[in-house]
Design goal:
The structure holds two protein chains of two kinds. Chain A is an alpha/beta fold. Helix content of chain A is 39%, strand content 19%. Chain A has helices at residues 10-19, 152-157, 176-186, 203-215, 233-252, 264-277, 291-299, 307-313, 341-349, 358-362, 385-408, 416-432, 442-453, 465-479, 481-490, 495-511; strands at residues 26-36, 39-44, 52-56, 61-67, 71-77, 88-95, 97-100, 108-109, 126-129, 146-147, 160-161, 167-170, 193-199, 222-227, 256-262, 304-305, 323-332, 352-355, 375-376. By secondary structure, chain B is of the alpha+beta class. Chain B has a four-stranded mixed sheet with strand order 2-1-3-4, sandwiched between helices. In chain B, helix 4 (55-66) packs antiparallel against helix 5 (72-83). Classes of the chains: A alpha/beta, B alpha+beta. The A-B interface holds A 7, 13, 16-17, 19-22, 24-30, 33, 41, 43-47, 59, 68-71, 90 and B 1-3, 5-6, 9, 133, 151, 155, 157-163, 167-168, 171-172, 174-178. Strand 1 (26-36) of chain A pairs antiparallel with strand 4 of chain B.
């Protein structure tokens, strides 16, 4: 028996027949002269605009990318097997748009906003253009509110603010996506909506991420935009822009959103493929001349906008609220080479980077963040007070430790001060390790960093630090829940909190239960 | 196709400007059309495609066949084309010449395909309406296509106005399938 599609319900068909626009408008038409590798050349179409959607026979759409004197070069969005030379192509007068809005939360969609999770149609009320110009200077506000990632290493050393662009960079398989997923999971209850854009990944990896997000209850505030490795290059090129438009919906309405582009290297590859097939001249590493602009215009749209912009955008509906879109682009390096073309480009565009190192990952330091060269250029102003106060020593301790550790390999006996510093560094390194899918709250991070800073870890064996941490955290939760709650709410740090931490730690150390 | 028209453009433009200066648009259009038709004869195609035939031979042959249709300037044009091995572009050049001429005359060729035969009054009405819309003098060609079911399709250059029943049905089908 033949299956019935959801779109074949009589009511729907009836309304569609009712809505059919039968006016016969003058349309610009052209003829396909060549079809190759997803690139269509069209003769005619004299009135076509750059980036305009082009309609082919059979409901297939394309996008005009090359406007030449005698022909138009376009990419096909979807299956191009049905297209052939001689078929007609029509202008639509529209630019590409995707559905936006809260209806998308919890859904997995493709680069054009079509659902691919089998949960039925997305009935979004609004659509928005993929390509938009970023807010201007007047409309912006400086970054001064934090986005908690939930990882001690990141929040303490490379704090991220709302509206910031922080790059996650490193070789394959060393936990770039893990940081991104933890960041999404930690936004549960924070009011920050998340958009995860998967570009050129295996469908299995995307499915795994979605499953993990569902398991941790983080899918409710997340939109997943997936252009997998099997999708056409055009979709992989467009997916980040689609995700960005979905994120901007929140930014423009005085809310906060976080977007993750995983990863932009593959988008650059897809764009390189399209450009070369369109016969644009290749430049360095065969990338086209505008690959920098590709990423800069995308990342520029991640911004914090001021209340006046939000008020103007919403027509006075939302007053006195700033909006933000924070971006965590991911870049994959080859053998740690950050001086390749795309990594240098994106490093220079973003407001800092989290640099992951294969050696550290293999040595068991996870997240494998290299604290020395990871920076956040604007996040310091946004860091929570307690973390800012306490984490000052962490960076220096790790820097000194690295220096001394290299040096101490040659020296047999070390003086007491050096030994103490090495001990401390070793313990801090150990403390910065954190399991996947277990983001910590501000108070939890605060108490652990406090313990390290005040020397409470001195009596703990290095391989017991992990156990010490989990025991201490459950102790704090059980015995000092009100103190922890207070810190989580206000983020403050004062003498009273310090005294509370100290008393609790002394009591806990005395129990020796870890 | 696209590449050919790019190659043909400078020749068509030069010929057109020359013809305007010489005030002989009609004559040039005719000679170019004749020459273009000649280059499409199978024997001539063979000659033009043959690597062993020299440019001079090709030009001479073509001029010979065209006979009186080519003026002295026209013959020179053919020689220049042959020297650059571009004689095969003649159909394109002729086509572009025609469209430049039409553009200058503020005229446009319009194809009207209808499901039923249009009577003279209807044709007259269409011509008037189209001249007004396109702001051009309309040269209408009418053809019949029963498969349109009803209405008509008007084609003027790249612009298409689809007012046929078939077009509407296709639209409906796409809407229902989307």
């Amino acid at each position: 028996m033949q299956q019935l599609n959801p779109s074949e319900i009589s009511e729907i068909i009836k309304s569609r027949i009712d809505n059919l626009d039968v006016s016969s408008e003058a349309q610009n038409e052209g003829t396909i002269v060549s079809v190759s590798d997803g690139i269509i050349r069209i003769h005619g179409l004299a009135d076509v605009m750059y980036g305009e959607m082009i309609e082919f026979d059979g409901g297939v759409y394309g996008m005009a990318l090359n406007l030449e004197r005698d022909s138009v070069g376009a990419v096909v969005l979807g299956d191009y097997q049905s297209l052939a030379e001689g078929q007609k192509a029509r202008c639509t007068g529209r630019v590409l748009e995707v559905p936006v809005g809260p209806e998308l939360e919890g859904r997995v969609v493709d680069a054009l906003g079509n659902p691919i999770d089998g949960k039925g149609p997305v009935n979004a009320a609004l659509t928005d253009a993929l390509e938009k110009v970023a807010p201007g200077v007047i409309e912006r506000q400086s970054v001064d509110q934090p986005v908690q990632i939930g990882l001690k290493a990141v929040d303490a050393m490379v704090p991220i603010g709302r509206g910031q662009r922080e790059l996650i960079i490193g070789d394959r398989q060393i936990g770039k996506t893990a940081i991104a997923v933890d960041a999404i999971i930690n936004q549960k209850g924070s009011g920050i909506k998340c958009v995860y854009v998967a570009i050129g990944q295996k469908a299995a990896s995307v499915a795994a991420v979605v499953r993990k997000l569902e398991e941790h209850g983080a899918m409710g505030h997340t939109i997943v935009v997936a252009a997998t490795a099997a999708d056409p290059a055009a979709m992989q090129y467009l997916a980040p822009f689609a995700g960005c438009s979905m994120g901007e919906y929140y930014r423009d309405r005085g809310q906060d959103a976080l977007i993750i582009y995983d990863d932009l290297t593959k988008q650059a590859w897809a764009y390189r493929q399209i450009s070369l097939l369109l016969k644009r001249p290749p430049g360095r590493e065969a990338y086209p001349g505008d690959v920098f602009y590709l990423h800069s215009r995308l990342l520029e749209r991640a911004a914090r906008v001021n209340a006046a912009y939000v008020e103007k955008f919403t027509g006075g509906e939302v007053k006195g609220r700033t909006g933000s879109l924070t971006a965590l682009p991911v870049i994959e390096t080859q053998a740690g080479d950050v001086s390749a073309f795309v990594p240098t480009n994106v490093i220079s565009i973003t407001d800092g980077q989290i640099f992951l190192e294969a050696d550290m990952f293999n040595a068991g330091v996870r997240p494998a963040m290299n604290a020395g060269i990871s920076v956040s250029r604007v996040g310091g102003a946004a860091q929570t007070k307690i973390i800012k106060k306490l984490s000052g020593g962490i960076r220096t301790a790790l820097a000194q430790y690295r220096e001394l550790a290299a040096f101490s390999q040659f020296a047999s006996d070390l003086d007491e001060a050096t030994k103490a510093q090495l001990d401390h560094g070793e313990r801090v390194t150990e403390l910065m390790k954190q399991k996947q899918y277990s983001p910590q709250s501000i108070a939890e991070m605060g108490v652990m960093i406090f313990a390290a800073d005040q020397g409470f870890l001195r009596g703990v064996e290095v391989n017991k630090i992990g156990d010490f941490e989990s025991a201490l955290l459950s102790y704090m939760k059980a015995e000092h829940g009100d103190l922890m709650d207070r810190i989580n709410q206000s983020g403050d740090y004062n003498d009273e909190i310090a005294a509370g931490f100290k008393a609790a730690l002394e009591k806990f150390i005395a129990t020796q239960t870890w | 196709m696209a590449e050919l028209s790019t190659l043909a453009r400078p020749y068509a433009k030069a010929a057109f400007e020359f013809a305007v200066e010489a005030k002989d648009l009609q004559g040039w259009a005719k000679s170019l059309a004749t020459a273009a038709a000649v280059t499409q004869y199978s024997a001539v195609v063979k000659l033009l495609g043959s690597p062993s035939s020299t440019a001079a031979l090709q030009a001479a042959t073509l001029i010979d066949i065209c006979g009186d249709a080519l003026s002295a300037a026209g013959q020179n044009f053919v020689v220049i084309l042959s020297e650059n091995r571009r004689l095969t572009l003649l159909p394109q050049i002729s086509y572009q010449f025609e469209s430049m001429k039409a553009n200058r005359d503020k005229a446009i060729d319009v194809e009207v395909t209808s499901a039923q035969t249009l009577d003279t009054a209807q044709q007259q009405m269409l011509t008037e309406a189209l001249s007004k819309k396109l702001e051009r003098k309309v040269n209408m060609q009418v053809s019949l296509d029963k498969s349109l079911l009803g209405g008509a399709v008007i084609r003027a250059g790249d612009t298409v106005i689809d007012g046929s029943i078939r077009g509407r049905l296709t639209k409906l089908a796409e809407l229902l399938n989307s």
